Amino acid sequence: MATGEFFDEMHKPDGSVRDAYAGYQAWYGEQEKSFLKRKHSDAENAFRRTGITFNVYGEDEAEERLIPFDMVPRIITAHEWRKLTKGIEQRVSALNAFMHDLYHRQEIIRAGRVPEHLFRNNAAWLPDMVGFTPPGGVYTHIVGIDLVRTGPDEFFVLEDNARTPSGVSYMLENRETMMAMFPELFMRVPVESVSNYPRRLAKSLAACAPDCAEGRPVVAVLTPGIFNSAYFEHAFLAEQMGAELVEGQDLRVVDGRVAMRTTRGYKPVDVIYRRVDDEFLDPLSFNPDSVLGVPGIMDVYRAGRVTIANAPGTGVADDKAIYSFMPEIVEFYTGEKPLLPNVQTWRCSDPDSLAYVLDNLAELVVKEVHGSGGYGMLIGPAASKRELSDFAAKLRADPDGYIAQPTLALSTCPIFTNRGLAPRHLDLRPFVLVSPDKVDITPGGLTRVAMKPGSLVVNSSQGGGTKDTWVLKD
Questions:
Q1: pLDDT computed for residue 65 by the predictor
Q2: Which of 108, 209, 359, 456 could be disulfide-bonded to 270 (CB atoms 3.0-4.6 Å)?
Q3: 3-class SS of residue 275
Q4: CA angle 42-29-70, nearest 5°?
Q5: What is the tens place of the pLDDT at every residue in 216-260?
Q6: CA distances from 37 to 34, 79, 389, 417 (A)
Q7: What is the average pLDDT across 29-40?
Q8: CB under 8 Å to 196, separation ≥6 — which residues?
Q9: Is the CB of residue 424 less than 8 Å from the CB of residue 451?
Q10: With 80 as the cut, is the pLDDT of residue 371 above it?
Q11: Measured distance CA(195)–CA(180) in Å, rounded
């Protein structure tokens, strides 16, 4: 089962099983294939009943599809996880310090470590946030750091998601499904729990409540509504946290506070976990046509009378051009070299880099700096000559809008198929909670897996699937 040029996380080059998977392999070898096939079908039915779907844009057949779930876990040792968490904590701390600096003294710009034009011309940078510090000093309350693996001790950060990272509900449902299907397996293999994430999220958000909060802070999840691709997650997290699920029409500004409509009138809200983009958050400050947000919420926010998580304006950190400067950003704010390296990145805004990218387009992955979900990108080795030519024209027309990276040899982990186990490429999104005095990293995360043989595209919005992620106990 070795996969040659790609690092196989389960098997060594000689085909033997790595230590992390020894317990799982022993259990797997004892199971009848008919039992495993039946459980594979049971998992799909469970996800269908629960309503775990995601929009796959550009498809004509249906608006939503079931997210494929694979029942072979992705397993990480305790030692590997400790190394990852140190690097993740360092990076997230630097991101939060970077956001504060950008909206205040801009020392990193003055020091010449990051060029000013990267955020001055960036739509995600909000002048409304200049000079304002959110309650508790936290900008990035919930962060998803996308990691890829290329070798035994080789992990790279592929993207930073500091705006509204999604996918945590799938992490939780994956674990719940695995425990329901294979309870005996968790008796044999000691795995760290992820089920307390909602409680930790609620506690972390409450710790960021504004000074005006009285008693237990009131937390609400602000959703765009049932037609949003991640609505399942919004409703799931609100229920699991014991928080209110609200839409913009349920909120209004009353006596200088944001309040939600209840059967007893309007009740003040202290913390809003918003899943609405900046543009639609406040029609008085941003898009005047928005019906998804709350008129006047930014005034209340800037008065320090409500917490918005994540803070408006954090989308700057999601920008892939900013990502290319993360090694400098980490070192500037922490005084340390990054523990988790970036993927090598060429900024097409640089003429020399653009020339290199155009000359080597067939070997590179090119992404829009503001893109997400796998859209607007080119995977050179999989592209046709026509696609390469068309994309080269896009690069020449708008070089500032793109970065390029090498085609990584992403690690593989088996998925279950009717013919047995088969390797597929994957990535990992750990979820990080930030409060004024703590960075809390859930031991696991969302493993996204490409379901097609040889595919490097793992995004759910592009048809990828998910796996349960196990961090082993010591």
A1: 62
A2: 209
A3: coil
A4: 35
A5: 999 999 999 998 888 989 999 999 999 999 999 999 999 999 999
A6: 5, 33, 44, 8
A7: 93
A8: none
A9: yes
A10: no
A11: 13
C-alpha distances in angstroms, 168 versus 19, 119, 144, 379?
27, 29, 9, 27
Q: Where are the domains of the chain?
A: 19-210+306-339+408-471, 346-406
Q: Does 3 score more than 60 pLDDT?
A: no
Q: Which 8-state DSSP code applies to residue 296?
A: T
Q: Report which DSSP code applies to 313.
A: T
pLDDT in tens, 263-281: 999 999 999 999 999 999 9
Collapsing DSSP to helix, strand or coil, 63 comes out as coil
From CA 118, how far away is CA 376, in angstroms rounded? Answer: 20
CATH topology for the 346-406 domain: Dna Ligase; domain 1 (3.30.1490)
* Tokens read off for 344: 């090598």
pLDDT digits (tens, 9 = 90+) for 405-458: 998 889 999 999 988 899 999 999 999 999 999 999 999 999 999 998 888 878
* Residue 174 preceded by cis peptide, ω within 30: no
In whole angstroms, what is the distance from residue 345 CA to residue 365 CA?
A: 10
d(CA 190, CA 430) in angstroms, rounded, equals 19
Is this structure's pTM higher than 0.85? yes
Q: Cα separation of 14 and 360, whole Å? A: 34
Assigned token pair, 266: 């309007």
What mean pLDDT, rounded, does the chain reach?
92
CB 119 within 8 A of CB 322: yes
Which pLDDT value is given to residue 60? 45
Residue 438, classed as helix, strand or coil, is: strand
Token couple for 227: 């037609």
Residue 193, both tokens = 């729990």
pLDDT of residue 373: 54
Average confidence (pLDDT) over 145-156: 95
Name the percent of the chain in helix, strand, coil, to the closest 5: 35, 25, 40
End-to-end CA distance of the chain: 27
DSSP state of 318: G
Could you tell me which of 361, 323, 362 has the C-alpha nearest to residue 345? 323
Identify the residue whose tokens are 């928005």: 290
